[in-house]
UniProtKB/TrEMBL annotation:
Keywords: Sigma factor, Transcription, Transcription regulation. Residues 119-171 form the RNA polymerase sigma factor 70 region 4 type domain. Belongs to the sigma-70 factor family. ECF subfamily. It comes from Streptomyces luomodiensis. Interacts transiently with the RNA polymerase catalytic core formed by RpoA, RpoB, RpoC and RpoZ (2 alpha, 1 beta, 1 beta' and 1 omega subunit) to form the RNA polymerase holoenzyme that can initiate transcription. Signal peptide: none annotated. NCBIfam families: sigma70-ECF, SigX4. Residues 23-82 form the RNA polymerase sigma-70 region domain. The keyword Secreted does not apply. This is RNA polymerase sigma-70 factor.
Amino acid sequence: MHVEPSPTESPTASDLEEAVSVFVRHRLRLFGIAYRVLGSAAEAEDVLQEVWLRWQRTDRSAVVSPVAFLSSTTTRLAINVAQSARVRRETYIGPWLPEPVDTSADPALGAERAEALEMALLLVLEKLSPTERAAYVLREAFDYSYPEIAEILHLSVVNVRKIVSRARQHLSDERRESVDTTEHRRLLNAFVSAARTGDVASLEALFAPDVVSLTDGNGMRGAARIPVLGRARVANLSTSYPRFWRDVDLGLVDANGRTSLMIHRDGKPSAFVAIAASTEGIHKLMWVLSPSKIAAFLGSRSRFATGVSPAPGV
């Protein structure tokens, strides 16, 4: 549903106060939608800023359902940004990884369930078109009905059902059954212990046969610019730079619904490490070295630590 803003009416202070209240109330849900579609906290924030501006300018008296209006606007804007982001990422140097987000305060990040939030799954979602991604996210993470999704995407209900079905099939072909939270943390701790001590044999025992290591540094010196495949190669990569693990402070963080690792050097965050694991062991190692993405994670931590906060300018 789209409502054009009324150019003749100027909102009163109470009207704007109510607009802010409604926006803030739904902000986590809107961020959760945009983030899952984009894989970028910074881009999701930009989308929400634009959503707020449109909500502020809209004749809200004509809006039957504010949450429907806000969700629809967020989804469409996120799809537009995702289409242009795909072109920009073609020039990215080395593997591109999603920006991690802190989920210590909200493990599902505003959704009905934590679906499509883990970093490894966000990577798979990148292989879908932005519209397919949005349809899947709205259905599986936020439990929107097919008619609601059809209205948001300006598609027929039949088409939406087909899109969601194709997306499910594509993801089921590539995703694996994840281990539970306890086992995931155990594997992460075991990986860190073995990597810090240079225990290659123990590392190989932790890995699935087809393990892959992805390093997001966007051209940073020392960051692997291609995926590293296989137990032996990934184990060697994880231990080949002893200085990487020397004189650092390690801390566990809640990111994207899973326990991950933040590495500090000289008091500053320098690397973020996440794993994806199944019953076969760790099958994906994800290293985020890009300072902007680490900063985005820290920003999301402060933003959601005490609940919902309004977008800039609200």
